[in-house]
Every structure is written in C-alpha cells, then in structure tokens.
Automatic annotation (TrEMBL):
Domain WIT1/2 N-terminal helical bundle: 29-157
SUPFAM superfamilies from the UniProt entry: Tropomyosin
Pfam families: WIT1_2_N
PANTHER family listed in its UniProt record: EGF-LIKE DOMAIN-CONTAINING PROTEIN, WPP DOMAIN-INTERACTING TAIL-ANCHORED PROTEIN 1
Name this protein carries in UniProt: WIT1/2 N-terminal helical bundle domain-containing protein
Keyword terms of this UniProt record: Coiled coil, Membrane, Transmembrane, Transmembrane helix
C-alpha cells in the first residue's frame, strides 16, 4: 500500500513538472482522496468503538468463566470474546497503518503546495488543516481503543489463569495452600492437572511473548518507516529552507531596490511639490491679473454705456434733424455735387463698421480666452489635488514598506532561530517519532506562513512598482500640463496686452469721435439757429416786399387810370409810353396827392426801388446758403450714422 502511494506521488510529481494544470488537478485529487480516507477512518473508528462497547458489556458477564463451576456456554462466550478482541485489535492496527499513510500523504501534499504557487492555495491549506485535525482526533480514538483492548486482554489473561487482577499478587502466596487442599481432595487428579496447567501457562506466556515480539517488530518497522519518512521530510525541509532562504535573499534585494526607488520617488515628489508651489504662485498671480482685467473691462463697459447714452441723445437730435430734412426735400435735386462726398462718407462708414466689428470680435475672443483660462486653471487645480492625493498614498505605501522591511528582518532572524530549532528537533525526532511529527507540523505551518508572507511581500512590491510607475506617468502628465499651461498663460498675457492696446486705441478713437460729435452737434445747433433766424428775417422781408408790391400795383393802377383820362381829353393824340412818362406820372401823382412835399416822395421811391433791387439780389444768395446748410446737415447725419 505504501509503495503504491509513493508511486502515485512520484507519478504526480512528474505530471506536475510536465504541466501545471495537471499538477493542480492532481493536488485537488489528493485532497479529495484525503477527505474520503479521513471520512472512512472516522466511520470505521465509530464502528470499532461500538464493538468495543459491546465487549465491555460482555466483560462483566465473563468474571466467573475461569472457575470450576463455569458452563460450556460461558466458555463459548469467552472464546467469542477472545475472537472479537483479536478482530478488533487487527482492525485497529489496520486503521493505525491507514492513519500513518494519511499522515505521510498530508506531509507530501503540504510540501507540494509550498513548492507550487496555486491561486487557491489558501483554500487547499485550509482543507489540509481540517484533514490534519481529523487525523489527530482519529489518533486519539485509536489510542483510547488500544488502551481499552489492553485492559480487556489482561482480564482475559486473568480469567484464563483463574484469578482476578486483585488476586494476582496474593495468588503466588496462596498457591501452595490451594495445591495442598486440592492434593488432599484429589491426589490423582492433581498429578495430571498441575503439569497441564503449567504447560498451558507456559504456552500462553510463549504466545504472549511471540505476540509481543511481533508487536515489537512491527513497532520497529513502523519506527523505521517513520524515520525514513522523517529523513525524507527533513531533506525536503532542507530543500524548502534553501528555497525559502533564496526567496528571502531575493526579497532583501528587492527591498533594497525598492528603497532606492522610493528615495528617487521622494526626490521627484519634492521636485514636483516645488513645481506645484511655483505653479500655484503663478496661478495666484494670473488670477490677480485676471481680476484686474475684469475690473478694467467693467470700467470700459461703463464708459461704453455712457457713450451709448450720449449716442441716444444724439439720436434724438438726429430725429429733430430728420424733421428738418423732410422740410428740405425740395432741394435734393440740387445736391448732385454732394454725392461724391456721400460715397466717400459711405466708404469711411464701412471702414469704421469693420473696425468696430473687429473690436467686438476681439472683445469676444478675450472673454472666451479668459473663460478658457479659468477652466484650465480649475482643471489644473483638480489635477494638482489628484497629484497631492497620489503623493499621500505613495508616502503611506512607503511608510508601510519601511515597516514591512523592519518586520521582514525580524522575521528573518526569527526564521533562522526556528531553523536552528528545527535541526535540533530533527535530531531528537530520530529518538521520538511522535514529538518529531508535532514539530514538523509546527514547522510546516511556520513555512506556510512565511511563504504566504513572501508572496504578500512580492505582491505588495509589485503593487508598489505599479503605483510608482503610475505616479511617474502622472508626474510626466502634470509636468506636460504645467508646461502647456505656462505656454497658454504666456499667450494669454500677450493677447491681453494686445487687447488692452487695442481697447485703449478704440477708447481713444471713441473719445475723439465723441468730441467730434459734440463739436458737430454744436455747429449744427448754431446752423439751425442761424437758419431759423434767417428764415424769419426772409419771411419778414418777403412780407414787406409783398406789401410794397401791392402798393406799387395800386399806384400803377391809379396812374393807368389817369393816363387813360388824359388820353381821352387829348383826343386822338397818342403819347409814347415809356419809363420816363411813367415816372413823370408817378411824380405828378405824388405831387397831386402831396402838394406840400415836392422832393421827399421822389427820394422815398428811389430808396424803395433800391431796396427792392437789393432784396431781389439777396434772394439767390439766400437759396445758396440754404442749399449749403442742407448739404452740411446731410453730411453730418451720414457721418453720425457711420460713427454710430
């Protein structure tokens, strides 16, 4: 059975070296087999315990079997009791052998689990621990059954010899007296029975001695097997300790490398913190500048609002001028010369509109750039917060790694001590196999713990490396983002400066345009006032001229009537009608109407005639003045519209 198990173990070892999946399947099969065997042994021990209870119940009925008065049924009971005790003893030995095999299999599987790194190793180790605990319980049950069997064997021995346990010591003292009594009672029977009893006792003792020799031989073989197993286990433990020592050396090297990497990362983190502080200061400066720019823009918006108010006032003035324009539509045909000026004014208007559109686009681009700068600043702050959180995590991991390194060194020293103790225990295990088994279990648990610790340390080291790589990548990203932000800040500063210059130019142009508008408004108001005064004066002159014309018509009519009368008095005599005769008639009429004043009417008529001539001459000049005023008003309206 042991050879078959060893062959299976070696076959499974070769399969594990060939492919890892087969090895895992083999380990799982071993675990299931161990569980089945442990369940089988536990059930068998329960059945044996039940049998033992029956034997103990029969033991009370077999006290009087060794006497002379005992019957054949009692002898049959004793024989069946003896046979059942033998069967139970053989079954207990088989169970003990099975338990030894199970113990060897558990040791082998634990060693295989320690060598191969299975993902479900913790679960498998738990199963192995459960099987080991069940094996210990079954060992205790076997020991109890063996003790009770030994007691039953003593009882049988005493029953066969015809004495009890308490009477054994007294039997040798009273044996002479009993023999004497029996000899006295039955002298012929005693001669035959005494040697037969002596022979039976000697045979029983020989059988017991043979059994004890067989048991001792079996114990020696078991001890040899256990020593062989312990030697194999010690060799495997040495290999495992060498492997673990190599892993410890690798862990120390990796810890040193990680310490160097952590120092480099600490330096990089300090540099990153300095760069972050500089970027934070730059961001604060940029925010202050942005606030200043916003304040300036608000002031400029107020100025623009004031200009809009003035423009609204100018619109009202323009509405008044438009009312004047409706009155002056009759003079539009005479303004062909002003069309060229209007075309030039339109061109200037388009240029001014384009300039204003450019300034508005520039203002919108400034606002968009400011909004983008604020959003990028916020994103930069968020990235800085993320980097700070990552830095805190890295510092915590570094502290944890430092603590782990200290613990590792302590555990290495403790493991060295444990290895020394293991060597001492291996020496002692050659003497006592049971103590060595317990020490081996302790060693296996310690080795499993150390392997799990090594795997945890490796996983933590890999995690730390991955996190350091991620932190380096984040640092690179942050540095690139900082460089991009710095470039964008420089560009924004340049744009802000250019926009400030353009705003200053636009403000200067607006102020100039406002000044020109105010001057032109004043000129327009003056011209309008002059035009209104001139219109009133012309209306008065026209009214006076109309009155004078009516007077002249009346005079002409009166002179014509007098001339007709004179013609009728003179008969058919014809007089030439000319200006001199008309003047003579007028003078005559005046002389007839005003005989007292001879010289003054002639002077008055001459003055009126001269005033009429001057008024007639002034009329085209007034028309020209009106045309020029209308042209000026139209040009001003067009210029005002262009500026608006």
């Amino acid at each position: 059975m042991e050879e078959i198990v060893q062959e299976d173990v070696y076959n499974h070892g070769e399969a594990s070296s060939s492919s890892r999946s087969e090895e895992e399947q083999w380990i799982e099969g071993l675990l299931t087999k161990l569980e089945m065997d442990s369940a089988y042994t536990s059930e068998k021990l329960l059945n044996l315990h039940v049998l033992l209870m029956h034997l103990l119940a029969w033991d009370n009925d077999l006290e009087g079997v060794g006497t002379l008065d005992s019957s054949a049924a009692s002898f049959e009971k004793a024989l069946t009791f003896d046979l059942l005790c033998g069967i139970l003893e053989s079954e207990v030995k088989e169970v003990d052998e099975v338990l030894d095999e199970l113990e060897a299999q558990i040791v082998d599987t634990s060693y295989k689990l320690s060598i191969c790194k299975h993902p479900n190793s913790i679960f498998m180790e738990g199963k192995l621990g459960e099987s080991a605990e069940s094996l210990k319980q079954s060992r205790g049950q076997v020991s109890e059954i063996t003790l009770q069997l030994a007691q039953l064997r003593r009882r049988l021995h005493y029953i066969r010899n015809g004495s009890s346990e308490n009477e054994e010591s007294v039997g040798y003292l009273g044996s002479g007296q009993d023999l004497r009594q029996k000899y006295v009672l039955r002298p012929s029977d005693l001669r035959h029975k005494n040697p037969l009893r002596m022979l039976e006792k000697s045979l029983a003792r020989e059988l017991e001695l043979e059994k004890k020799l067989i048991e001792f031989q079996q114990n020696e073989e078991e001890l040899k097997l256990k020593l062989h197993y312990t030697e194999e286990v010690s060799s495997r433990m040495e290999e495992a300790s060498e492997f673990i020592w190599g892993q410890f050396l690798e862990a120390e090297n990796s810890s040193e490398v990680l310490m160097g990497i952590s120092k480099e990362l600490v330096g990089r983190l300090q540099i990153i913190q300095l760069s972050q502080n500089g970027s934070a200061q730059r961001e604060s400066e940029l925010k202050a500048k942005l606030e200043d720019l916003t304040v300036q823009l608000e002031g400029k918006d107020l100025l623009v609002q004031k200009l809009e108010g003035t423009i609204a006032e100018n619109r009202e003035m323009v509405s008044e001028v438009l009312t004047l324009r409706e009155q002056v539509k009759s003079a539009e045909e005479k303004l062909e010369k002003t069309e060229t000026e209007l075309k030039s004014v339109n061109a200037s208007k388009q240029e001014v509109l384009l300039h204003l559109a450019e300034t508005e686009d520039a203002n919108e681009s400034i606002k968009e750039s400011l909004f983008e700068a604020e959003s990028r600043a916020e994103s930069g702050e968020a990235k800085i917060k993320e980097v700070d959180a990552a830095n805190l995590e890295l510092t915590e991991e570094l502290n944890f790694l430092k603590d782990a390194d200290d613990k590792k060194t302590k555990k290495v020293s403790s493991i060295e001590k444990q290895l020394r103790e293991l060597e001492f225990q291996l020496q002692n295990s050659k003497v006592s196999s049971e103590a060595s088994q317990e020490q081996q279990n302790m060693l296996y648990t310690a080795i499993w713990d150390m392997e799990t610790l090594i795997e945890d340390l490796k996983s933590k080291a890999s995690k730390a490396e991955s996190r350091t790589e991620t932190v380096e990548e984040k640092c690179v990203v942050v540095s690139t983002a900082n460089s991009v932000l710095n470039k964008e800040v420089i560009l924004l500063r340049q744009r802000a400066k250019s926009l400030e210059a353009s705003l200053e130019l636009a403000n200067d142009e607006k102020e100039k345009n406002a000044q020109e508008i105010t001057v032109r408004n004043k000129l327009l108001m003056d011209m309008v006032m002059q035009l209104s005064s001139e219109r009133e004066r012309i209306q008065e002159q026209l009214y006076s001229l109309a009155k004078e014309n009516e007077k002249l018509r009346v005079n002409q009519c009166s002179m014509g009537s007098k001339f007709q009368r004179n013609k009728t008095y003179a008969g058919d005599k014809e007089l030439p009608f000319n200006a001199e005769s008309l003047q003579a008639g007028i003078h005559y009429k005046n002389a007839m109407e005003e005989p007292e004043t001879d010289v003054e009417p002639e002077d008055h008529y001459a003055s009126e005639k001269s005033s009429m001539n001057t008024e007639i001459r002034r009329a085209p000049n007034l028309r020209r003045i009106l045309v020029l005023a209308l042209a000026f008003v139209l040009s001003f309206i067009l210029c005002f519209g262009v500026c608006y």
